[in-house]
Amino acid sequence: MAIILKNSLKLNVFHNKLSPFLRRRQSETQTSSLLSLTTSSCGLIESTIKDKLQTKLKFGNTLNKIEITSSAVLEANDCTKGRKSVGVLGGGAWGTAIADLIGRNVAKHKHLFHEEVLFYVRDESLRLIIEKTRQNIRYLSAIKLPLNVRPVSSLSDAVSKSDVLIFVIPHQYLQDLCYAINDSISTRNPIGISLSKGLHIDSAGNLELNSQIIHRMLGIPVGVLSGANIAIEVAQRQYSEATLVNPLTNDKNCEELFRCLFECNLFRVSFCNDGPTVEMCGALKNIVAIGCGLVDGLGYGMNTKAAALSCGVREMIRFVEVFHPKYELSTFFQNCGIGDIIASSFGGRNRKVSEALIKSSKSIEMLEKQLLRGQKLQGPQTAHVVYQLLQNKQLLNEFPFFSAIHRICNRTMDPKDLIQAIKSSP
Amino acid sequence: MAIILKNSLKLNVFHNKLSPFLRRRQSETQTSSLLSLTTSSCGLIESTIKDKLQTKLKFGNTLNKIEITSSAVLEANDCTKGRKSVGVLGGGAWGTAIADLIGRNVAKHKHLFHEEVLFYVRDESLRLIIEKTRQNIRYLSAIKLPLNVRPVSSLSDAVSKSDVLIFVIPHQYLQDLCYAINDSISTRNPIGISLSKGLHIDSAGNLELNSQIIHRMLGIPVGVLSGANIAIEVAQRQYSEATLVNPLTNDKNCEELFRCLFECNLFRVSFCNDGPTVEMCGALKNIVAIGCGLVDGLGYGMNTKAAALSCGVREMIRFVEVFHPKYELSTFFQNCGIGDIIASSFGGRNRKVSEALIKSSKSIEMLEKQLLRGQKLQGPQTAHVVYQLLQNKQLLNEFPFFSAIHRICNRTMDPKDLIQAIKSSP
After folding, report:
1. What is the DSSP string of A77-125?
2. Domain named Glycerol-3-phosphate dehydrogenase NAD-dependent N-terminal: which ranges (chains A, B) (predicted)?
3. Catalytic residue among B285, B326, B369, B416
């Protein structure tokens, strides 16, 4: 595929703003007055450059042109060209369950994928055990991983050999991971899918999503998978669903590739183009789950929990309205919305720890260590980030439920006052 | 207040189509060429006649005029004029809990309400026990009713003395009740609020809601109260919320009247003008609850339940789209929507009986008798009505989840096939 940028007066600016990955690509092929990028497949550079040009950089009209030959367009649309290697980054419960699912799926779709799935597990002792027993005895001992899932301890190996990168680490480690793998990114135009849940504040004080961090730091297109997916239940092959955001919007070949990667008889994916809402739902639902756990811990019944949950959902919607005004309300009715909210509010780890918070004087960090055996809570950190973002915009008054959850988590508010917060929510 | 209908060439047609209540009013004041209705308060006749003229009857332009003096308009808007007597029709668990709530509220708002609440209990032996012990030992023994709630056995007494009628009987008995009280309706322009949950098919094969039946048969304006309100929890004063549809849309005095009637520190009401959606949510959520009970009974976990629930909610929305195209999607995020769906799917009687259906070969009617001690299930009947309505419109294929619930309830489908129905739902 050839992408030609003509009339590049501001080429240096463009060059410096490109991600390290694209800079490498560019240097290989740059000419004096014509930048021509040649690569083997996927149109990934095309979409990345378009994105950079159209959203990140303010070029004059002269540079903002991309010429692509018609054969290149055809090729660019065929993201399934060539068999893909898949790497799963993260050896927690959900990482293990998804490695298991993907391991089985790539074996069924050998025309699309290399059969070996690289499974990065940070802790070498755990990796050795998984390699030997096929079981993640620490986080998901109930299943044996298929033989084609290979646990690896070298992050750069896992990354450099993968065309599809599944990010499934706690969101608080995401930036460090991206920094660490920046130089290992495959030269074969990888695509990322974020399964991490959480929100960030960028250096300018604005909201940044996991997929945006990966895209910013690695320069690769990133999709999202999110839904009511309690890891052990997916691993036990109980029927589950998820919402999938195609990294290359409207690219049907890419959609089909990812459907084959994730979907099976007992795991159904539905596609959604409203990526930011899908991702925000995945993060914000953990705040709602904390609220529901608090209601449980306070000894209230289903009416109060339903009031807390529907109040929480309405604050979720208002939050998305503020930070992503082009959202679709219907996204909240996908599995990533109402489905995930319910599963987390009745069954997840955030609910569990916050219920314990009522009955204990320990800090939430201590309870996390005690109850989750090394797994990380996303809810309290997300509540903190949301609190800061709303504070920056002087909107805390309009989000009494979200605000209360943060203040209860950091022990500056009596949990009993949660009911008052629910009542005062618009 | 005076309402004057001029130029009534088709007066006889109009006269015959009016409800018995309005016919009485009309006969009292009719003159040869001018129909003048005089009444004391509330503008109820105004709204009822307007409704009849504008939506039910197809008159010529000449008759379709209502002249109201400006003082009458002022008076018509003041629906709080005069202290109101409240009657609660229905002695089940929810009827008892709401009689308790209303009993306490009218005592707090003596300027708006007569202090005595008439509580119609059909079964005389139960009524006597309630009168003596203040406890509904059959359906809600956990609380003692306040002394100002007077259980009565005469339906006509309860109805004729009430300005506000709370309909809280199983929906399958609603038409019989309306027929029975048609001649007892107060001459003081009562207002109704429906708390019943369920759907009906009218004589033309179309969907008819509880509030529409009451309005059609009694000629009174009818609002709706619906939400995550498990009776025992409301009675135990656990914090609960509900959505309230004002019988006189946009009449702020009427809104305030009903807020005072229902709201207290631990029961919050929010108003919503999208009445048909509120009412359909209250009925359809019982089908979703059956689906969730089946998932529980089949031994699946939270992921599958979340998939069933979100699939059910999407079919609810599509159903409302078909039968009430002017719906507001946001109504589903009120307590009457997502809140009630959750409470019913995790805690209600429909969930309980359908879970038992999996583990038993008994019919759903037998399980209802065995498990609910005389209380009625709304879910299976609602699923049946929905099935018929969709069949009439040849839309069953688009509602595989709803269709499956009906067929599982009448034992013509294996419950295990529910998962396939969820998977095939659009």
Report:
1. H-TT-SPEEEEEE--SHHHHHHHHHHHHHHHH-TTTEEEEEEEE-S-HH
2. 86-244
3. B285
In the numeric block, the tokens 């004057």 are attached to: B4
Verify whether the Cβ–Cβ distance A342 to B307 is below 8 Å.
no
Of A233, A240, A303, the CB nearest to B234: A303
β-pairing, A35-38 with A67-68? unpaired
Residue written as token pair 């509540």? A383
CA-wise closest residue to B232 among B112, B320, B117, B101: B101
Residues of B in contact with A338 (CB under 8 A): 306, 309-310, 313, 338
Taking an 8 Å cut-off on Cβ atoms, the answer to whether A306 and B340 are in contact is yes
The pLDDT of residue B360 is above 50 = yes
Question: Which of A101, A302, A344, A417 to mutate to probe the B interface, most B CBs <10 Å?
Answer: A302
CA distance A354 to A359: 9
Choose from A226, A229, A237, A239 for mutation: most chain B CBs within 10 A: A239
* Residues 152-181 in A contacting B (C-alpha not used; CB under 8 Å): none
Whose CA is closest to B318, among B349, B284, B292, B267? B284
- Is B329–A330 a contact, with Cβ atoms under 8 angstroms apart? yes
Q: In the A/B pair of chains, how many CB contacts fall below 8 A?
A: 138
User: All domains of chain B, ordered by start, with CATH?
Assistant: 54-273 (3.40.50.720), 277-424 (1.10.1040.10)
Searching chain B, which residue's CA lies closest to the CA of residue A339? B306
Give B-chain residues touching A301 at CB under 8 angstroms: 230, 233, 236, 238, 347
Report the candidate in B322, B323, B294 with the shortest Cα–Cα distance to residue B307.
B294
CA distance A343 to B305: 8
Measure B40 CA to nearest chain A CA, in Å: 37
pLDDT at A32: 30
CB contact under 8 A, B306 and A343: yes
Asked whether the ipTM of the predicted complex exceeds the cut of 0.90, the reply is no
pLDDT 10s digits, B45-76: 444 444 444 433 333 333 333 433 333 333 33
Q: What is the pLDDT along chain A (426 residues), one digit of tens a residue?
A: 333 333 222 233 333 334 444 444 444 333 333 333 333 333 344 444 444 444 333 333 333 333 333 333 333 334 557 899 999 999 999 999 999 999 999 999 999 999 999 999 999 999 999 999 999 999 999 999 999 999 999 999 999 999 999 999 999 999 999 999 999 997 788 999 999 999 999 999 999 999 999 999 999 999 999 999 999 999 999 999 999 999 999 999 999 999 999 999 999 999 999 999 999 999 999 999 999 999 999 999 999 999 999 999 999 999 999 999 999 999 999 999 999 999 999 987 888 888 888 888 888 888 888 887 777 788 999 999 999 999 999 999 999 999 999 999 999 999 999 999 999 998
Q: What are the catalytic residues of A?
A: 285
Task: With CB atoms and an 8 Å threshold, state whether B305 touches A337.
Answer: no
Residue with tokens 């059910």: B312
